[in-house]
Fold these 2 entries.
Entry 1:
Amino acid sequence: MLGSKNITLKSSDSNFEKMLKAGVHFGYSRSRRHPKMKQFLFGIKNNVEIFNLEKTKQKLDEAKEFMKNLGKENKKIIFVGTKIESRKLIESFAKEISALYVNERWIGGTLTNFKTIKNRINYLNDLIKKKETGELEKYTKKEQLQTEKEISKLKFHFQGLQTIEDLPSALVVVDSKKERNAIMEAKKISIPVVAIMNSDCNPDDVDYSIPSNDNSKSSIEYILKELTESYKEGMKTKT
């Protein structure tokens, strides 16, 4: 019960029950609500705002169609999610479709200063290659240790971007408020953004907003899986 209201499920669509089970419908407290998220809300329970899952599903379906088209054209995507709840999920789902990912820290200029970032990634890959081929063994132990530390530092920032060749065709973001810098860069160079966003976010910040719980592993997992499966579906129909 939400006050005097009930959440109504369509028996023909099991996705609603799955969304409820995953906790997709939980927002934040009313005091944290962004005014433009009101349109996606159903009510309040125990001071927690509840998303209208019919509207969430509608926005999710729009994002899935976009992902399907990206898959059909084999377009590259960067998954972005640096909050603890999303890090492993971001890496896992990105790898399922050979996408790129950032799950530790967004480095400023990743998109808007792409050439410089690409040079750093090339440098990392070169150091890794030298290590694997034994080329570093000609250096002193101190120099090898310094190189190991440098590799570790670079991998922390760029591990999910090591195979990047060009700018991506889209970003998939968990929590548009937290990943504001990534979204701002994408907007500057007209890269579309799909975002899972809670009630404290502005849906106008992105191209495909998915109003939902962005603070729960089960909710994040449910939505990322839906998006990834749509991309896979598109891949099957590519020419």
Entry 2:
Amino acid sequence: MALSVPRALTRRLPRSTAGALVAGVGFIALATIAVGTIVVLGGRDIGAPLPPTLFRLRPELSLFALPAAALLAVAVPLARRVSLPSVAPGTFVLTALGLALVLRLALNAARNGPSDWWIFFDPRFGEGTVEYLSALPALDFGVPLFLDRFAETATALPVHAVGHPPGLLSVVGVLGIETAPAFAALIIAAGVLCTPLVYLLARELLREEWSARAATLLFVFAPNALVYGASAADALYATLGALAALALVSRRRLVRHLAGPAALALATFFSYANLAVGAFGALVVWLREGWRPALGVAASAAAGLVVAYVAMFAVFGFDIVGALSATADVYRASIARIRPYWYFLFGSPVAWMLALGPPIVLFWLRAVAARQAVALALGAVVLISSLGGFTKAETERIWLFLVPFACVAAAAVLPRRRLVPVLGALAVQAFLMQVLLGTVW
């Protein structure tokens, strides 16, 4: 079966070609930043204050930043220590999980203190007025009726509620969550669980313990994962996407063809973006095993989605087609209408790569040159997502579900001696992003 893998994809590119790839992407990124800056300075609003990102230059250095800086400084040598073979895998995973939680909380409190863990979700303030809790009245008559009427009433809901499937709000209704701190606790707890999933995904795809640990630590320190990990629902969606990917690429047929589609259906019930995880899984299997197994994964995933949403319609009356149509209508009438496709065709991936961290991007691109399956599959998904144009701008947050895959890809070629400098650079970038730049999250 391995013979069915395209032969060209099994050969490593020359070092010079890898360098050209990195240089080419770097040139495109600089050109994208320059063009966006010129357009904005010329007076045109393209929906990206600091193009191509949604960041704004908003420095704020308070006493709350000191604990964050100290913890980041201590975390880098601790990460190096737990990456050593002498540390048991279980101890490593628990330590990485603890690091991710502590660093996300500390960094997200670096501007205004612990209130920033939940203020963005509060329907009384700022972005909270269009976030999920502003849609709580739609749950007044219970989750079943909410699902039954979602497609018909979605356009009347706040933008974040209509922009996503009703999975998260359904959980909010079932759990009886009514306050921003409780909602934030759900997001933070679920989001940080992506950390052990990255470790398991890297073990599955890279097959080396050190590489799996490197991938996990890259994810722990990835700037966008840290900055948005305690302030955006996309952190929860990333966890569900990583779980689906882990199942879809499993070498165990039962897991791949049953658990994989089920996990993918669950992930897409929370975020439409997680549909890309199905494509990612099929591409990885194709590059690793050939087209027949990949076709099986794609067929299983598609069948799982059909079965899941037909069942949702039969039991609750949830109309996925109508929900997608409502989302598309709202998206076309939203700020996306002023965001030029020609610019964000390049701007969206560049914004994501900038927030992901240039060190991770560098090694991901080197992994592409090395013909690593996970790196090539991620590249294809990023390209398709950009061409689709449904996530123009905000991709430093919206594409958070792709961060685990980038970290696994980068770890595949990351030399051991580079781990500490890379983690240090990521920690510095994350801190500077938090104290110098501002977003609505």
